[in-house]
Design goal:
- By secondary structure, the protein is α/β, with parallel strands linked by helices.
- Helices cover 37% and strands 16% of the residues.
- It has helices at residues 32-46, 67-79, 81-93, 109-117, 122-130, 148-155, and strands at 2-4, 9-10, 26-30, 53-57, 103-104, 134-140, 160-164.
- The chain has a five-stranded parallel β-sheet with strand order 1-3-4-6-7, with helices on one face.
- α2 crosses α3 (81-93).
- The chain is globular, with a radius of gyration of 16 Å.
């Protein structure tokens, strides 16, 4: 199994232990890393390498956002990247209050731009499914980073979508709610 981490994160795979398929022919990614995982599957298919499963945890999805949203994100990051990342992580944890802290890693304005402007290809998703790769998408209905309903709607024709009613971007449920 190969796992691709989210924007500015390191070691975030531990958040998804309960769902990760550790199989040799599985590729997985979280948020920004979901894009990299998807692209790795495309590369593997082009190279005729066997892939059985693609797992996308809270995949990046900003296709419905207006250009003004992206501009505000770029400006906030440029003004104070440390504050931006702290706010970003706070939103990733919400609605849960959790002592678990994830290590931060590399991040740049170019990476943020790539994250905010990425467009999923329906044609490539169809190709992945036609090649026999099973796609699982995991999303929290209370996600403050991406629009869970938009993800469900877009990915439903290609994937099994698992929605957790009381979870956010990190798929952690609030303490007073049961896991879905």
């Amino acid at each position: 199994m190969r796992f691709y981490s989210g924007f500015a994160l390191v070691g975030d795979a531990k958040l998804f232990e309960a769902w990760l398929d550790r199989g040799e022919y599985t590729i997985a990614g979280f948020s920004y890393g979901a894009k990299a995982a998807f692209e790795a599957v495309i590369e593997a298919l082009n190279a005729k390498v066997r892939i059985d499963r693609l797992q996308l945890f809270s995949p990046l999805f900003f296709e419905q956002k207006k250009e003004r949203y992206r501009i505000l994100q770029y400006e906030a990051y440029t003004q104070n990247s440390a504050s931006y990342i702290k706010h970003f992580l706070d939103n990733c944890y919400a609605p849960a209050i959790n002592d678990l802290r994830i290590e931060t890693g590399a991040h740049t304005l170019a990476m943020l731009e790539e994250l905010l402007t990425y467009r999923w290809s329906s044609t490539q998703l169809e190709r992945v499914v036609a090649a026999g790769v099973h796609i699982d998408v995991y999303v929290g209905a209370q996600d403050k980073i991406v629009d869970a309903k938009a993800i469900e709607s877009f990915f439903c024709p290609f994937a099994t979508v698992h929605t957790f009613a009381h979870a956010g971007h990190f798929l952690i449920s609030s303490p007073k709610e049961h896991h879905d």
